[in-house]
Amino acid sequence: MFDFPYFISMLPDIWKAFTETLIMIGISLSISLIIGLPLGVLLFVTDKGLFWENRFVKSIFGFAVNIIRSIPFIILLVALFPLTKLLVGSTIGPVAASVSLSVAAIPYFARLVESSLRDIDKGVIEATIAVGATPWMIITDVLIPEAKSTIIRGITLTVISLVAYSAMAGTIGGGGIGDLAIRFGYYRYDDTIMISTVVILIIFVQLIQLIGEQIAKSIDKR
């Protein structure tokens, strides 16, 4: 049963948890964009028939991406505790949880970028090569601009996945909405907090989807 006065009294805790969730998502999304975007481009341009074709590089990075993506996040989270401890000095809190979130998000986003680049007409790439464009020019002036709307949609999907992962991270000390839901909603059978966290996450994800789709449509040249 939802207790509105109690919900009002818990607003500071809910806001604190939501802020921690935003910190986790912000850090991990930034790292996944910085590393995942060039990694996705690399996976594409080293594929068979492309201008930087390299079977060895493609196999090595593709294999690493597939390994990380095949590990369930909750297991990856625990497995990376030693690395998290080494990097941030703790395994508890939103910053610590961001390490595992970043490791999970990088290969996910890289595959989305690679998929986006595969949608580009090969004729456009061949025409650019024919006029003597350098590989760097092809990447920056053709590949990224042509795929930018689908890349934006990929970023949107990555953020939504990070929302789900961050809630999971909260169950084992990451903080955020997930931690609040477990501590109050589950262990204390607090229906008000459980309903509140579910509604907040639904609204948050819908806003992310709406904003991401509007941005993608606004820059889509097709």
UniProtKB/TrEMBL annotation:
This protein's major location comes to membrane
Q: PROSITE patterns under this entry?
A: ABC_TM1
List membrane-spanning regions.
22-44, 56-81, 87-110, 154-173, 193-212
Gene3D superfamilies to which the protein is assigned, alphabetical: MetI-like
Ordered alphabetically, the record's keywords are: Cell membrane, Membrane, Transmembrane, Transmembrane helix, Transport
- What CDD domains does this protein's entry cite? TM_PBP2
Pfam families recorded for this chain?
Answer: BPD_transp_1
Q: How does it sit in the membrane?
A: Multi-pass membrane protein
- What subcellular locations does the record give? Cell membrane
Q: Which residues form the ABC transmembrane type-1 domain?
A: 18-212
**Record's superkingdom?**
Bacteria
Q: Which family does it belong to?
A: Belongs to the binding-protein-dependent transport system permease family.
Q: What is this protein called?
A: ABC transporter permease
